User: Fold this.
Amino acid sequence: MAIQNFKPVERKPLRWWEKLYIPQVLAGMKITLGIMLRKPVTLKYPEERPTIPKGYRGVPTLVKDQNGREKCVSCQLCEFICPPKAIRVTPGEIDPNAPDAALIEKAPKAFEINMLRCIYCGMCQEVCPEEAIRLQNEYSFCGGSRSAMVNDKKRLYELGGTLPDKILKWHTKAEARKNAQSH
Assistant:
């Protein structure tokens, strides 16, 4: 099917100067020179690191409170809410002789996050009632094998470290139990 209704566009013939394409080459060189003379934006990674903006969602980790206690109570909400199913939590029992046994019911026996599946959405951090899982500013995370990209509980606590507990629930519960026992 041929196009029947078209109108040819009349163009002016190029002058001899334009046929040499020198104006276009000079315009391109002007742009290139302008970019070259700007302040450099290339970083010498890993010696130089970019500044991380506030609210950046990096590697998910587990954190402990200021007294070194596990904040995770194995509620498994992070596992249920995770869209790619990257989190696996195995609940475990608390030793009855542990000093905090009266304060908490359970703790994770095993906790794994598969970083190959994680999409850094932050839903695990938002849903955690204990603020035990946090997204850190770490963005450069690599491994030599698939198994190296699965962070276990020990590795997650190494990456997370300790964060102060805003609620201080352990402290208030322990005081309440001591006061109840003394009366």
The mean pLDDT is 85. The CA atoms of residues 56 and 137 lie 6 Å apart. The beta strands are 60-62, 87-93, 106-114, 133-135, 150-151. The helical segments are 16-19, 22-36, 77-81, 123-127, 153-160, 169-182.
